[in-house]
Specification:
Blueprint: H1 2-8, H2 15-18, H3 26-32, E1 36-37, H4 38-43, E2 56-60, E3 70-74, H5 75-91, E4 100-104, H6 113-125, E5 128-132, H7 141-151, E6 155-159, H8 160-172, E7 184-188, H9 194-204, E8 207-214, E9 218-223, E10 229-231, E11 236-240, E12 246-250, E13 261-262, E14 265-269, E15 282-289, E16 293-295, E17 301-303, H10 305-317, E18 322-330, E19 333-340, H11 347-360, E20 365-370, E21 385-389
Parallel strand pairs: 1-13, 4-5, 4-6, 6-7, 7-8, 18-21, 19-20
Antiparallel strand pairs: 2-3, 8-9, 9-10, 10-15, 11-12, 14-15, 16-17, 18-19
Helix pairs in contact: 8-9
This protein binds zinc ion.
Zinc ion (ZN) binds near residues 224, 228, 274, 276 and 278.
Protein name: Phenylacetate-CoA ligase
InterPro entries: ANL_N_sf, CapK_Type1_Caps_Biosynth
Organism: Lutimonas vermicola
């Protein structure tokens, strides 16, 4: 793939003169081959294409890191993506073509009625029932539960926040799926917390499996029934530096080769194997994205998971005080968007302010905004922490 890229992809033409080809070992490749960032891919997208390859598949990223991106994937790399998914379903006793529910962002409507109709018909043939994350609320949940009962899917897959919201709405409205055939819940795209996994499992009465991937990088890893996240090593090369920054290459994508792509995810690999006997490398945990870190004035960074800890503590101290929250960092300010619960007390503001001063950083200004609804990002994902502008803060 490196040889093809250096010969046929304009972006890599110059690299041939800077490195020794072919690479003797992986260490040399990791150290010597330049890294590529999302920004570079956006700016150089035309130069990154192999013009001689005429057949490919286009994948668009949702823009969760701020910039939507289109990546062209060779048929061979796409086949590996599908094969990885087929193998994952097989681990769980499911089949690729089993009926399923997809909780996702609204799929773009086609301009013509006929095209829309054909799209819906295609989903029907694929055995898929679509649920729009933007359309999940107390008024629609009853209808969705009924639709699932009628559809009888074998698994449910979706954004973690979408699946979690579905479970919360079912729980709040005392709903159950009657005669459910669901064997597995698959969550993706957002970090899954232990308590969230437990809650979803309790509501649906089946296990939750995590999948980790990116439209621009392929399927990285899938969770096995023993609970380990196994890397799809046949089709993706993943490494990390000493700061746990992920660097990966989707092998076989010689239509648009993204070699040594640093997508700002932070990952920790496990030193141990898995009791399931599969020898594929195991991810111990996904720490999150660089964008998940709170910037302090002195240049230090704190992981935004600290807010989850704060809100867990708050729930213990003041039971049923807050339904949902989101923290927005805007320069030196942290804005807490809060949906109040029945036991809300104004002293909660003091509790959070003190926690930010002692656990995050003292110089951040803490503001509160009470809302009835926490809005999803435009890509349909729900984030509990977002950074509006970080460039005002010294890095
Ligand atoms: Zn395993």
């Amino acid at each position: 793939m490196i040889n093809t890229s250096c010969s046929n992809v304009p972006y890599y033409y110059g690299i041939k003169d800077k490195v020794r080809l072919p690479f003797q070992d992986l260490d040399y490749f990791n150290q010597q081959f330049p890294k590529i960032s999302k920004e570079k891919i956006v700016n150089e997208s035309k130069n990154l294409e192999n013009p001689f390859m005429k057949s490919f598949v286009v994948h668009a990223t949702s823009g969760s890191t701020g910039t939507p991106l289109q990546v062209k994937v060779s048929n061979r790399a796409e086949s590996y993506r599908i094969a990885n998914r087929m193998r994952f379903y097989n681990w769980w006793g499911l089949d690729f073509y089993d009926k399923h529910v997809l909780i996702w962002r609204s799929l773009e409507k086609e301009a013509s009625f006929l095209k829309n109709f054909l799209k819906q018909f295609q989903y029907f043939l694929n055995g898929r029932l679509n649920i729009d994350v933007f359309d999940l609320n107390a008024d629609t949940i009853y209808g969705y539960v009924k639709a699932i009962e009628k559809f009888r899917p074998k698994y449910l897959r979706g954004y973690k926040s979408g699946v979690l919201e579905f479970a919360r709405l079912m729980y709040d409205n005392k709903l159950k799926i009657k005669d459910s055939k669901i064997q597995l819940i698959i969550v993706t795209s957002e970090v899954l917390l232990i308590e969230e996994r437990r809650f979803i499992q309790d509501v649906f009465g089946v296990k939750v499996a995590n999948e980790y991937g990116a439209a621009d990088g392929g399927q990285f890893a899938f969770e096995c029934p023993e609970g380990s996240l196994h890397v799809n090593e046949e089709s993706v090369l993943m490494t990390t530096d000493n700061m746990n920054n992920l660097c990966f290459t989707e092998l076989y994508n010689d239509k648009m080769p993204l070699i040594n792509y640093e997508n700002q995810d932070k990952v920790i690999f496990s030193e141990k194997g898995c009791s399931c006997g599969r020898t594929l490398k195991v991810i111990d945990h996904i720490v999150g994205r660089t964008a998940d870190y709170i910037d302090c004035n002195d240049g230090t960074k704190k992981h935004s998971l600290i807010f989850i800890g704060m809100f867990n503590e708050l729930q213990i101290k003041f039971n049923k005080s807050i339904k949902q929250f989101k923290v927005i960092q805007n320069g030196n300010s942290l804005i807490f968007e809060i949906i109040k619960d029945i036991n809300y007390e104004p002293s909660i503001e003091g509790f959070l302010r003190k926690n930010v001063n002692t656990k995050v950083c003292g110089e951040l200004k803490v503001l509160f905004k009470y809302v009835n609804k926490i809005d999803r990002e435009s890509n349909g994902k729900l984030r509990y922490f977002v950074k509006k502008t970080s460039n005002r803060i010294r890095k």
